[in-house]
Structures are given as structure tokens and as C-alpha cells.
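Researcher: Structure prediction, please.
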Amino acid sequence: PACNTSNDEGRKFCRGCGKSLQLQCLQCKVTMPVWEVFCGACGTNQQEFQQSLQSRFDGIVQQAEQQFSELKFWTALDLLAPVIECDHEFVAETIKRAKTLAARITAEQQQQQQLIDQSQQLAAQYRQDYEFVKALRELNKIPQPLQTRAIKEQVKEIQQVCSEVHTLRSQIKDAIQKRQMQGLLALTTRYLELHP
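Model: Predicted structure follows.
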């Protein structure tokens, strides 16, 4: 143990500091003496396993940070889950970093959701008022990775309406300039349906 007191092999706790002289193998979970490097049951080198797990967890935290920067909140949180659930003391600092990052992700996710809700409400109001360009502008404020299928469909629908309104306006203007009355009523009626 850390106190460097020598103990008999049969002891379970240190006679100098009282700490446990046994631990679980990191691989197979069989109980083994703390001073042994290789597990007697599965042969796993405990030091190498620790280094491997530390390296893996560091990589996971980096991946989660990358996903977070791309606003992929759920992916980042899913990546962090095994690190946060781990209880090995030798990776305590990495676990702490993972928990801090998870808290930041959750806070940002909630803030973004509030902004999304606000943009959707404003866009709905603008649509009711036939202000399609403003509605489109509001929905486009939502970052691409956070746009749900429903939001993308709304954007597409509004773009189609804007395009049709623009086309109708041009056709009506051309028909009036050319004094072509045939079909003008249908064009005007459709235009007023979309943009009263």
C-alpha cells in the first residue's frame, strides 16, 4: 500500500494504514492482491489495462467535445456515458472532465431548445400574417444540426410558397403590361390565396 508497510500475504487489510490489500482485476473482476501486476485468473496486466483505459477515456472526451462543437448534443452525451459511469480512481480526473463537459452540453442544449421554440413561435406568427420571408428568416436562425425533419419541411414549404408568390407576381405584372386578360383572374386569385 501507499504507506509502504510490509504485510503478510494472508492479510486483507494493511496493518499500518488499514487500507485494503485486495482489488478487483480491471478485466475479469476477480479479487487479487494489490501488489500483483498480472491477474492470476485472466492474465491481464493491470498497469497496461489502466493506461489503455485512460487513453480510451481521453479519446472519448475529445470526441464528445468535437460532437458538442458541432451541436450534436445527444451523440456527445452518449459518448460520455461510459466515462461518467466508471468508478475507477485512476481515471478520476478524466471522469471529472467528462461530468463537467456533460453539464455544459446539457446547459447549452436547453438554451438552444429555448431559442428553437422561440424561433418556431415567431415563424408561426409570421406565417399567419403571410410574412413568409420573415418566417423563413426565423426558421433559418436555427442551426442546421438542430433542425428537425419537421422544421426542414416547414422551411421547404415556405420556400415553395415564396417562390410561387414571386412567380405569380411576375406573371401578373407581365400580363398587365401586355394587356393579356385571359388567365389573369386565376393568377390573381391564387396570388391572393397565398399573399392576401
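Model: The two ends are 82 Å apart (CA to CA).
Researcher: Thanks, that helps.
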